[in-house]
């Protein structure tokens, strides 16, 4: 349970922000080759009523635009104006990657493997360091929005660490279709939050360079439920009803292509499949008989590779193997 309040002025990026104030700040630590500064907008909304500080981010990977769309809608719908406390939104953390439609920073690094960063490392590492030192410490709770990489479409899901009851409670309240217990990845934003004892919900929805309004709505509904739980949701908004509880997945694995060729998917995201069920076929371009892909176990389909052509060994489905 998040119980913190911050009645004092909020100090962020060299500015003091009083209760009841709104600010658009610029988290800028680097320039293009032309010496043009790269703006990373930071939107801060403080209620007149003290309360916790929620940090909402997207675009740590610059091509994961569906996460950015979720945070954009938070701002455009004015969900970020809290009934109490403070909401800080960074719709695009990795503006460099966004400009280039790339997952990576211009130095070729994955920003989500550079946390907590350093003062004398790569550009991505320096950026991560300044973020961790200048923005992250004010947060009482973080929500970070991602998508599947490449052509892989992720079912709407929250990823959390095991044995953290606070985070598990928050994931239950968010109520994405799936909640996955996933180990921390060294150098990730989520790992750094965990080490700083800041609860974080990592959302995965959709695939890179693609917008999906339906899956965005699922995430926005989860945000509203969290805000309501924290007593931060403005009274103009209704609390979304919960028609089906999140499925907590304790173990999962990837199904990989045994042959190269055209991928013909026979199931849908979120489907529950049974062992040996036909879930796809793989065929070459020359009319040879297709190879059938069957489910190795009963489970939920939580990721589908939407690429038309795959190589032998490519991940084509993500399937649950154990649930709570």
TrEMBL record:
Pfam families: AstE_AspA_cat. It comes from the Bacteria. Its cofactor is Zn(2+). SUPFAM superfamilies: Zn-dependent exopeptidases. Residues 50-230 form the Succinylglutamate desuccinylase/Aspartoacylase catalytic domain. One of its GO terms (molecular function) is hydrolase activity, acting on ester bonds. Keywords: Hydrolase, Metal-binding, Zinc. This is Succinylglutamate desuccinylase. It comes from Bizionia arctica.
């Amino acid at each position: 349970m998040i119980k913190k309040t911050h009645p004092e002025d909020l100090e962020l990026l060299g500015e003091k922000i009083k209760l009841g104030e709104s600010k658009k700040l610029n988290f800028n630590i680097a320039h293009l080759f032309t010496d043009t500064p790269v703006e990373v907008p930071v939107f801060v909304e403080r209620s007149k009523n003290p309360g916790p500080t929620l940090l909402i981010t997207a675009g740590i990977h610059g091509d994961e635009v569906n996460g950015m769309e979720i945070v954009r809608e938070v701002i455009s719908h004015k969900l970020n104006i809290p009934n109490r406390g403070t909401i800080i939104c960074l719709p695009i953390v990795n503006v460099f990657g966004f400009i280039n439609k790339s997952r990576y920073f211009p130095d070729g690094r994955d920003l989500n493997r550079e946390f907590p960063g350093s003062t004398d490392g790569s550009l991505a590492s320096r950026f991560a360091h300044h973020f961790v030192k200048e923005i992250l410490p004010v947060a009482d709770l973080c929500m970070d929005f991602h998508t599947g990489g490449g052509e892989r479409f992720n079912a709407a899901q929250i990823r959390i660490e095991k044995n953290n009851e606070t985070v598990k409670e928050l994931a239950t309240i968010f109520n994405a279709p799936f909640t996955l217990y996933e180990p921390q990845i060294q150098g990730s934003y989520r790992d750094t939050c965990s080490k700083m004892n800041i609860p974080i919900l990592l959302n995965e929805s959709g695939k890179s360079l693609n917008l999906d309004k339906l899956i965005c709505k699922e995430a926005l509904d989860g945000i509203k439920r969290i805000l309501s739980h924290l007593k931060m949701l403005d009274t103009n908004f209704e609390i979304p009803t919960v028609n089906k509880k999140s499925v907590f997945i304790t173990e999962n694995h990837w199904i990989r292509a045994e042959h190269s060729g055209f991928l013909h998917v026979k199931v849908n995201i979120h489907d529950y499949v049974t062992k040996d069920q036909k879930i796809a076929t793989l065929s070459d371009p020359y009319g040879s008989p297709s190879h059938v892909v069957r489910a190795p176990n009963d489970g939920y389909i939580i990721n589908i590779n939407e690429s038309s052509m795959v190589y032998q060994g490519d991940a084509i489905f993500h399937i649950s193997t154990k649930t709570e």
